[in-house]
Design a protein that fits this description.
CATH class of the largest domain: Alpha Beta
Order of helices and strands: HHHEEHHEE
CATH topology of the largest domain: Gyrase A, domain 2
CATH superfamily of the largest domain: General secretion pathway protein M, EpsM
Shape: elongated
CATH architecture of the largest domain: 2-Layer Sandwich
Strand content: 15-25%
Distance between the termini: 126 Å
Number of domains: 2
Oligomer: single chain
Number of strands: 4
Number of helices: 5
Radius of gyration: 42 Å
Length: 197
């Protein structure tokens, strides 16, 4: 009688486990490789940025050194200024008239119910034209006079003018709204001609 054998391949289970372990190992190496590549990329980027900053710093240091040399040269040349040069500069500084600062100050002093519509400088006089809203309980002249007094009382603005005076006004009706057109004249203290700057 022939013997019958049942063959069981035990290596099959081992090879499946081995294959799974091999796949896991490869996945680990791929992830590790990606992380290493990312790390190298980030470091390279940081190095490039750092190199760029180093160049900017070098340029700034060179420029600072150049400016220091120029300052030293100007300071040494400044010792040769005559008394006349210094007095001329002092006169120029004293006579300087900053229109931008004065107009900014005038704008800050102008109330919400008044609007400046025109400015003109002629024969050492600043002509201020504007419009103002009218009120039933106040006279038109009072509104303009109060604004003139505000300009006069502000030393920072009025110190540049020998006189600030009301010139005149007229009442007009625009789209059913009564408004007052007015003109104010501010005479400059300085005799020399000034330009807007």
């Amino acid at each position: 009688m022939d013997k019958q054998y049942i063959l069981i391949n035990l290596n099959k289970a081992e090879s499946a486990e081995t294959l799974q372990a091999r796949v896991r190992e490869r996945a680990r190496w791929v992830i590790f490789g990606i992380l290493i590549a990312l790390l190298i990329g980030v470091n390279a980027k940081v190095w490039i940025i750092s190199a760029g900053y180093d160049k900017i710093i070098d340029k700034k240091e060179t420029e600072i050194a150049r400016l220091k040399d120029e300052i030293d040269k100007l300071q040494s040349e400044g010792k040769n200024l005559s008394k006349g040069d210094i007095l001329s500069f002092a006169d120029l500084e004293q006579d300087r008239f900053l229109w931008a600062r004065n107009l900014e100050k005038m704008g800050a002093l102008t109330p919400d119910d008044i609007a400046i519509t025109g400015l003109r400088y002629k024969r050492q006089k600043l002509i201020i034209k504007g419009i103002a809203l009218t009120f039933e309980d106040r006279k038109d002249f009072e509104i303009i006079d109060e604004y003139v007094q505000t300009l006069r009382n502000n030393k920072e603005f009025s110190n540049n003018f020998s006189k600030i005076k009301y010139v005149g006004h007229s009442k007009v009706n625009v789209r059913g709204q009564d408004i007052v057109r007015f003109e104010i004249e501010a005479s400059s203290k300085r005799s020399r001609k000034k330009n807007f700057s």
